[in-house]
């Protein structure tokens, strides 16, 4: 059946199955976009560019200028997921601005716009699920490495990080691909997929939370209180900001299935998602450069202090895997 069209909010553009007055409705909405939404788009572009630069540096350093260890593989994949999601957000904002500038030629670009927004929506689901899976894996493996250091050092498969990362990417891709096929060829599956996605996100988030809580208790409430390593601090902060910034966006996009086809979602969760994808390089730099109560060193030096810490300790023996 035909979906209702809401024309009261000029910041939203909705897809409908009919074509009677659709062109005129969209053109009217396009011509009276509020100034505040354009400012919102500018702020979003600024955050996206900063995040792209930061994650690009992390990818360049971890991929080409550092010896790989189990955790650098995970953080490299996480940087790829955040970089890709930021790139999609940046392209979404560009599409919005392009639409505003070319309102008079709207009929020539509408079909492209519809396809583009659909692709962006599904890819956002893909990278968001991948980031959640990677952060959960980092938290769980970090916890295991502290609770069972000898077993972890002696029995952990050499290429486990790469295999697990590949499986996580594949599972996220399979889920999103199945979701897109269901929306294309069948109706009524939106609620089912939204429920599955929220259930999976809840399970992974719970595992992430429990792992970090157990690790914190182990390090702070044991027989000897221990100093937190830089890598542990990075994991803890990344997880904390993901819960604060990333989870609201993930819940919002899945709860709003079927898709509303907003060209630019003027929502707090959208800005929170941008901040979540951009914050990790800042965390790496601040934690790595913090020495003797002040910040020291360049970005490259800070990244080495964070990610080489694990490898250096691992060379000293089985018990060196303890982050203290």
Q: Mind telling me the C-alpha Rg?
A: 22 Å
* Domain count: 1
- Share in β-strands: under 5%
Give the topology string: H per helix, E per strand. HHHHHHHHHEEH
User: Main beta sheet: strand number and arrangement?
Assistant: 2 strands, antiparallel
- Helix-strand category: mainly alpha
Overall geometric form: globular
Task: Write out the strand line-up for the largest beta sheet, numbering strands in chain order.
Answer: 1-2
CATH superfamily: Rhodopsin 7-helix transmembrane proteins
Alpha carbon gap, first and last residue: 62 Å
Secondary structure topology:
Layout: H1 22-31, H2 35-64, H3 70-101, H4 106-147, H5 149-155, H6 160-185, H7 190-220, H8 230-255, H9 268-289, E1 290-291, E2 294-295, H10 299-314
Antiparallel strand pairs: 1-2
Would you summarize the structure shown here?
With 324 residues, the chain is mainly α. It has ten helices and two strands.
How does this model look, in words?
Keywords: Cell membrane, G-protein coupled receptor, Membrane, Receptor, Transducer, Transmembrane, Transmembrane helix. This is G-protein coupled receptors family 1 profile domain-containing protein. With 324 residues, the protein is mainly α. It has helices at residues 22-31, 35-64, 70-101, 106-147, 149-155, 160-185, 190-220, 230-255, 268-289, 299-314; strands at residues 290-291, 294-295. The longest helix has 42 residues, at 106-147.
């Amino acid at each position: 059946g035909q979906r209702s069209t809401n024309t009261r909010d000029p910041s939203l553009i909705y897809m409908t199955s009919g074509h009677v007055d659709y062109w005129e409705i969209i053109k009217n909405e396009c011509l009276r976009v509020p100034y505040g939404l354009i400012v919102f788009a500018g702020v979003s572009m600024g955050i996206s560019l900063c995040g792209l630069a930061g994650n690009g540096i992390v990818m360049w350093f971890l991929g080409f200028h550092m010896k790989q260890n189990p955790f650098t593989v995970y953080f490299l994949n996480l940087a790829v997921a955040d970089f890709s999601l930021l790139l999609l957000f940046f392209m979404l904002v560009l599409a919005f601005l392009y639409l505003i500038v070319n309102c008079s030629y709207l009929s020539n670009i509408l079909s492209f716009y519809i396809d583009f927004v659909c692709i962006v929506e599904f890819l956002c689901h893909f990278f968001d699920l991948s980031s959640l899976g990677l952060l959960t894996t980092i938290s769980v493996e970090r916890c295991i490495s502290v609770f069972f250091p000898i077993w972890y050092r002696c029995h952990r498969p050499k290429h486990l990080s790469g295999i697990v990362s590949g499986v996580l990417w594949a599972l996220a891709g399979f889920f999103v691909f199945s979701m897109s096929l269901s929306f294309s060829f069948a109706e009524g599956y939106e609620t089912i997929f939204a429920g599955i996605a929220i259930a999976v996100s809840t399970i992974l988030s719970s595992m992430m939370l429990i792992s970090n809580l157990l690790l914190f208790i182990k390090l702070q409430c044991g027989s000897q209180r221990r100093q937190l390593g830089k890598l542990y601090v990075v994991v803890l902060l990344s997880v904390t900001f993901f819960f604060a910034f990333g989870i609201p966006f993930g819940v919002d996009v899945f709860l709003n299935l079927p898709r509303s086809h907003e060209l630019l979602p003027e929502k707090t969760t959208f800005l929170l998602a941008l901040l979540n994808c951009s914050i990790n390089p800042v965390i790496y730099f601040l934690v790595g450069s913090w020495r003797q109560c002040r910040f020291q060193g360049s970005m490259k030096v800070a990244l080495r202090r964070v990610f080489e810490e694990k490898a250096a300790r691992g060379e000293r023996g089985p018990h060196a895997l303890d982050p203290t």
